[in-house]
Amino acid sequence: MKKFSKAENGWMFYDWANSAYSIIITTAVFPIFYKSVATSAGVDNADSTAYLGYAVAAATFILAMIGPILGSIADYQGLKKKFFLFFFALGSVSTAVLAFVPDGNWVLLLIIYSITAVGFHGANIFYDAFLVDVTPGERMDKISSRGFGLGYVGSAIPFVISIALILLADKGVIPFSTAFATRLAFIITAVWWVIFTIPMLKNVIQIHSIPRDSNIIAGSFRRVATTFKEIRKYRHVFLFLIAYFFYIDGVGTIISMSTAYGTDLGISATSLLIILFVTQVVAAPFAILYGRLSQKYTGKKMLYVGIGVYIIVCIYAFFMKTETDFWILAMLVATSQGGIQALSRSYFAKLVPKEKSNEFFGFYNIFGKFASVMGPLLVGVTAQLTGSSSYGVFSLVVLFIIGIIVLKFVPEPELKVV
């Protein structure tokens, strides 16, 4: 078995590095902290959840608008790493800044959070693009999958440390307030992110590139327009992107809004943190299980299963009343969270023309970014109109139903026997 190269390890460990942000800032600690600050400032529960949804939508909309150009620019000689470094620095530094936002200033907290999201997702555009530079095509599935697995483990370690600090502070075991311990969690996230990105910065370089145009921006717009025209020629690829747009929006919204919804139900911050940690642990083996089952039942059928599970999640959430209900809901999400994301990527890879895979995956990422706008907005608007977060989560059923209907018209890719 060929050992992993320094470039491959450096690339994979960025997933280990930035996944701390995904669980601590996007999903767990920050939303709970924000809800606490907003509630203390007199903001209604439904409104504070809506404002968080709007912040998520705003950040992802910015990335969706500039994503096509960023992805195109990444192919120009000598620019990929510079742009990666800029967004990585923006995300990690602003994450640390969250710890220093004055008490009670929930508006500034949301603004800084939006900046962290732009940095995090912006860096990921270039991180994904670096895969073609670190390993040959026959090893990409292995390297990408291992990075995905490292991400689950890498997110768990700083998460456990953060939970321990918060719980110990809550019990008075350590001489910190819970709020101070939570702020330390933001610092831990930023430091973890920076330290484990060093191998990526040292060992990963841009190998594949195109010569720079005299006008890089204009050239990038032309290339994006050309890529879009190419996508429209492949009806099955375009249909998949539409299906993906809807169902992955629902998946991402549930991930980013889950703790805010749990808080609205009256579940304690301690319970939420424990539930989210167990969810991460359970999600890892189920992601692998989805991959194995796809070999027996096909990737498309397993995507149907994943989307079906999420529809059940939305319906169950509407009737949820107790902490036990939330546990059940979290475990349902854990069974399909990693699987649906991993199989979507591999399913798309089988559909696209291999000689143009980089261009097509650029649009795959773009559709994912645009999808992250509608779900949080739908939850926010519905929650405010009805005065209930339950209706907001239930409204996501629409996205999953549309996704599964469109996916039905996407042909099963032909698989090569290895």
Automatic annotation (TrEMBL):
It is found in: Cell membrane. It comes from Sporosarcina limicola. GO terms for cellular component: plasma membrane. Keywords: Membrane, Transmembrane, Transmembrane helix, Transport. It is a multi-pass membrane protein. The chain crosses the membrane at residues 12-34, 54-71, 83-101, 107-127, 148-168, 180-201, 237-261, 267-290, 302-320, 326-348, 360-379, 391-410. This is UMF1 family MFS transporter. InterPro entries: Atg22-like, ATG22/LtaA_families, MFS_dom, MFS_trans_sf. The keyword Transport applies. Residues 1-416 form the Major facilitator superfamily (MFS) profile domain. GO terms for molecular function: transmembrane transporter activity.
